[in-house]
Write a structure and sequence with these properties.
Distance between the termini: 55 Å
Number of helices: 9
Radius of gyration: 17 Å
CATH class: Alpha Beta
Order of helices and strands: EHEHEHHEHEHHEHH
Shape: globular
Structural class: alpha/beta
Strand content: 15-25%
Amino acid sequence: MGFEQRYIGCLGGTFDPVHDGHLAVAAHARLALRLDEMRFIPAGVPVHRGVPGASPEDRLAMLRLALDDRSGMIVDEREIRNARASQPNYTLHTLQSLRADMPRAMLCWIVGDDAFAALATWHRWQELFDCAHFIVVTRETRRELPETLRAFIRGREAASAETLRQQKSGLVYHLAMPPHVASATAIRAAIAENRTGNIQNLLPETVLAYIAQRRLYRA
């Protein structure tokens, strides 16, 4: 039996900067899963990677510009707020906060297959499934998972997107999607080397203009 509820997608990351690859994942997931809303949740101080090249304020501004004309896609600032209060950005705390705000919603946490393969290194990772479904974006073939994670998700893998709607959290769904050429690392490198002509088709024009105005990612 399904729930009378909202269906919410959550896409976390540094968004340093946000680019068309992020937007493509969000649009594809929203359509495939028939989500009511997609939340972009920028990290304040990431736990599993280095400090972003742009400040939290600049990354928020770029996200707002990128999503300005995209209905149903919003910026969620809770991890940035936590960073300002010197709190760590653990995904579990983020999901618990989202669940407290939306107790009846079906939450879908969207990750790439590379990040999902490392899930067992995340803070109290088993508890994440109490809060949300995991949507694993698979680019080509499925990535081999560590035995600990493979054993944990056995019996949790949803056969279809419709299966997710039968409960609010706890399942894993593999969402196939073609690879996208955009890469934040490559974009930052191109800007640092003054090769912006190479990236004009990889991120929204408004974001590229903001980067130029603020002189972000310069060497």
